[in-house]
Amino acid sequence: MPRLERIPTAAGRMGVSPSQVYREIKAGRIGPLVKLGERASALPAEAVDAWIAERIAEASQPKGGAE
Fold first, then answer.
1. What is the pTM of this model?
2. What distance in Å separates the CA atoms of residue 61 and residue 5, rounded to the nearest whole number?
3. How far is residue 15 from each of residues 6, 18, 23, 36, 50, measured CA to CA in Å?
4. Least enclosed by CB within 10 Å: which of 3, 27, 42, 67?
């Protein structure tokens, strides 16, 4: 069964602020945002896991440039 994480919880796992989570959603780098009510939103835990995995993959890529 898919799990949902409220924005502050997802932000804590991602190591960013809740505002940054919303910027990532707006930029299309994470999502979809699931409305739980009038003032409550969440992200699928799988989307948060994928975002974290992408950041790890980016960090482990060798940087181009001077050798």
1. 0.84
2. 29
3. 14, 10, 14, 23, 14
4. 67
